[in-house]
Design goal:
This protein has helices at residues 2-32, 38-75, 89-115, 123-129, 132-146. With 149 residues, it is mainly alpha-helical. It starts with a helix and ends with a helix. The protein is elongated, with a radius of gyration of 18 Å. The protein is built from five helices and no strands. It has one domain (2-146). Helix 1 (2-32) runs antiparallel to helix 2 and helix 1 (2-32) packs parallel to helix 3 (89-115). Bound molecules: protoporphyrin IX containing FE. Protoporphyrin IX containing FE binds at residues 7, 10-11, 14, 62-63, 66-67, 69-70, 83, 90, 94, 97, 100, 137, 140-141, 144-145.
Length: 149
């Protein structure tokens, strides 16, 4: 029961984090396309700041739950199973998760720079950049479901 509840909550917070990872660059696209509308810029920057903070909270909780699924058996041997054993899919998955977190933090930096009056990449470039997390997420999901190594 605890294991399945932990995994259910892990997926819930992973989904919430990924929603922020996918939406923040969309806000940046809108910021890049409304440079001469001051009121719209203020609203978009505020939305972006709130989403960025929300995303970090969701990641933090998803990470702690993932850690419990990964290493919890060492502390609660009777409650959580050792689901990884000697396999290494988790190492590759965490590398992709780290890349997603770096991507999200970079988008947060772009937002802060834009709010301070700094330049943004073009909206076309931002639309392409927005596709990168999709590829990283497909990789992370395939690794955790297929466990190829
Ligand atoms: C983008 C981020 C992440 C995604 C999309 C993701 C996705 C998933 C999915 C779909 C499962 C269920 C797999 C199954 O039941 O077969 C899962 C389980 C798991 N995740 Fe994550 N996860 C993410 C982040 C993390 C992080 C940061 C950690 C470690 C700190 C982690 C560790 C685990 C572990 C150990 C399991 C349990 C596997 C099992 O029950 O056999 N995950 N994850």
């Amino acid at each position: 029961m605890t294991y399945l509840l932990t995994k259910t909550l892990h997926l819930l917070f992973v989904m919430a984090w990924m929603a922020a990872v996918f939406y923040l660059p969309r806000i940046l696209v809108n910021v890049a396309e409304t440079r001469d509308e001051a009121a719209v810029q203020r609203r978009l920057h505020l939305m972006g700041r709130r989403l960025y903070k929300f995303g970090h909270y969701m990641f933090g909780i998803a990470f702690v739950l993932g850690l419990a699924l990964w290493q919890g058996w060492r502390i609660f041997p009777g409650v959580l199973p050792n689901v990884i054993g000697s396999m290494h899919w988790i190492d590759a998955k965490l590398a992709l998760v780290a890349a997603l977190l770096i991507y999200f933090s970079w988008c947060g930096r772009l937002l802060k720079r834009s709010e301070a009056g700094g330049a943004l990449p073009s909206s076309l470039a931002l639309r392409w950049i927005n596709e990168l997390p999709v590829l990283l997420l497909i990789g992370a999901l395939y690794l955790v479901l297929a466990r190829p190594f």
